[in-house]
Structure formats: structure tokens, C-alpha cells
Specification:
189 residues; alpha/beta; 8 strands; globular
């Protein structure tokens, strides 16, 4: 048997041993870890943005065709997420963004998910699978994405109440993770 095959083989004994450890942990009252798509990997946090530059203002349509102006959100933190339906990590983080939105909106933190390219009908079809309630805007020309200096998708910036880019995440996140929520809420202070 090859080394790779040997390490991928799981015996009944391994399964029973794993179940026994989990049962013992529950019996002695150890807290259960929340299962997530990133199970076993460290939590990916937010990076500080060097120099905290002003976030470029923009006006983009939402999925109903109404224009949304970024500068109207001054005075509170804003999570600005650049994504696309064709991007697997973007698709994976949508459910956690919805859960985070439920917490953040109660604390007067705004969230704007900006779809890069595409048309409203295709975006609606995708979002209907997840019962998304946070605002989704469309950057058909990618002009806003470029002016915000996105590196890839998803890229997320968090702005402070003064409208400066203070935090950034490149790649998918579990947005409802308590550490991420706390870091965003700290911007209100």
C-alpha cells in the first residue's frame, strides 16, 4: 500500500475512538465547537489598512434599480463586500454574511454587498437560495471595484464612521464569527 493510501484509510477503530473522545468531552461538560466550512483551520481575521485612506465615494444601483450613495452612510461603520455569483468562496460566505447582517444591523452597522459584473436577474436567482436581506448593489462596469483596489473576489473593506478604509479581508470569511463581529463593532467606539 502506498504511503498516501495508508494515511487516508480510516479504520472502524479510529471511528469508535473518535466517537469515544467526543462522548467523553460531552460527558465532562466541555463546550462544543461550532461546526463550520473552515473546521480545523484557524479563523481568518481582518487586516488593518495602512494609512486608513478615505474610501472612494460611489453611486450604484441596488437590485431594484434604486441608486445607493456610499457617502450617505457616513457616521457609522460600513462593511463593503465585493463578490460575484461565479466565485466559489463568495458563494460560500453568503450564508455567514446574512447571519452577520442580523447582528450588525441591530448595532447600526451598514453592510453593502457589491456584485461585480452581471445583471440583476441572475443575482436575484442566486440570492433567493439563501433568503438574503442585506443590501446588494451592482457594479456592472467594475469601476467601483477598481477604485476600491480590490485584489480578487471576494474582497471586503470595513470603513469607520469617518468613511476611511480601516480593515480589509481578501478571500472568504465566516462573517458571523464572534471575533470578526467584535472587531467591526469596536469601530463604533
Amino acid at each position: 500500500m502506498l504511503e498516501r493510501e495508508r494515511t487516508m484509510t480510516v479504520s472502524r477503530r479510529d471511528v469508535i475512538a473518535g466517537a469515544s473522545v467526543a462522548g467523553l468531552a460531552a460527558a465532562i461538560g466541555l463546550p462544543r465547537k461550532r461546526a463550520s466550512a473552515d473546521e480545523g483551520r484557524p479563523v481568518m481575521l481582518l487586516q488593518s489598512v495602512a494609512g486608513t485612506p478615505d474610501a472612494p465615494d460611489f453611486t450604484l444601483p441596488d437590485l431594484d434599480g434604486r441608486n445607493v450613495v456610499f457617502s450617505t452612510y457616513r457616521g457609522r461603520p460600513v462593511l463593503v463586500n465585493f463578490w460575484a455569483t461565479w466565485c466559489p468562496p463568495c458563494r460560500a460566505e453568503i450564508p455567514s454574511m446574512e447571519r452577520a447582517w442580523r447582528n450588525l444591523s441591530q448595532a447600526d452597522v451598514a453592510m453593502l454587498a457589491i456584485h461585480v459584473g452581471g445583471e440583476a436577474d441572475g443575482i436575484w436567482a442566486f440570492l433567493s437560495e439563501f433568503n438574503v436581506t442585506f443590501p446588494v448593489l451592482i457594479d456592472r462596469s467594475s469601476h467601483v471595484s477598481k477604485s476600491w483596489q480590490t485584489i480578487g473576489l471576494p474582497t471586503t473593506y470595513v470603513t469607520d464612521p469617518a468613511g476611511r478604509k480601516v480593515l480589509r479581508a481578501v478571500g472568504g470569511r465566516e462573517w458571523d464569527h464572534p471575533d470578526l463581529i467584535a472587531r467591526i463593532l469596536a469601530l463604533k467606539a
